[in-house]
Write a structure and sequence with these properties.
about 180 residues; about 55% helix; alpha+beta; four-stranded antiparallel beta sheet; about 15% strand; 2 helices
Length: about 180
């Protein structure tokens, strides 16, 4: 079969081909734009994933340090518990008769109880009293007049408790060097 193509038909075919090329270029441009959006979104997702991974790593390190600190604190608490039990057993085995305690008073109010006067003096340094500060004897002025003051208490078996022990102020002996 022979087909004769006229100039009009040829012109129409060229027009159709030109429209098809234009449409192909438009579709290619749309495909390129979609590809570009896809690549940008992919990079954004990758960046967020890397940030999340870094944050996860940082949180893991913080958690590991916290676990180490918790373990150390638990160990210290266990050691203190053992020491408290040892001291309780020691106290239950000994008579308290004659045992003394030192109470640190702040403007006459009890602040802390110590096993010895030396421990109380050492602790007052943490409250701003310089080491080596002369202490006022307890009988010289009322307790509320002193910022920091140490009072001794002696165990009294008859009352099953501690009572205040006033120690006399040292007085120089005449003729002593």
């Amino acid at each position: 079969m022979i087909r004769i193509i006229t100039a009009g038909r040829l012109y129409q075919m060229e027009q159709d081909a030109e429209q098809a090329r234009s449409r192909a270029l438009e579709v290619q441009a749309q495909a390129d734009a979609a590809w570009g959006r896809h690549v940008r979104e992919l990079h954004a997702v990758i960046d967020r994933a890397e940030q999340a991974e870094a944050a996860t790593s940082e949180v893991g390190e913080i958690l590991a340090r916290a676990m180490e600190e918790l373990s150390a604190a638990q160990q210290e608490l266990l050691l203190k518990d053992i020491e408290i039990r040892r001291l309780r057993a020691e106290l239950e085995g000994e008579s308290l008769e004659g045992r003394t305690l030192t109470v640190l008073l702040h403007y006459g109010e009890p602040h802390t109880i110590y096993a010895s006067r030396e421990d109380a003096y050492a602790d007052t340094a943490t409250h701003g009293v310089p080491a080596g500060t002369p202490w006022v004897p307890s009988s010289e002025r009322p307790a509320s007049a002193s910022k920091w003051r140490c009072e001794a208490f002696i165990y009294n078996a008859s009352s099953n408790g501690f009572r205040r022990a006033y120690t006399p102020a040292p007085k120089p002996i005449e003729g002593a060097a």
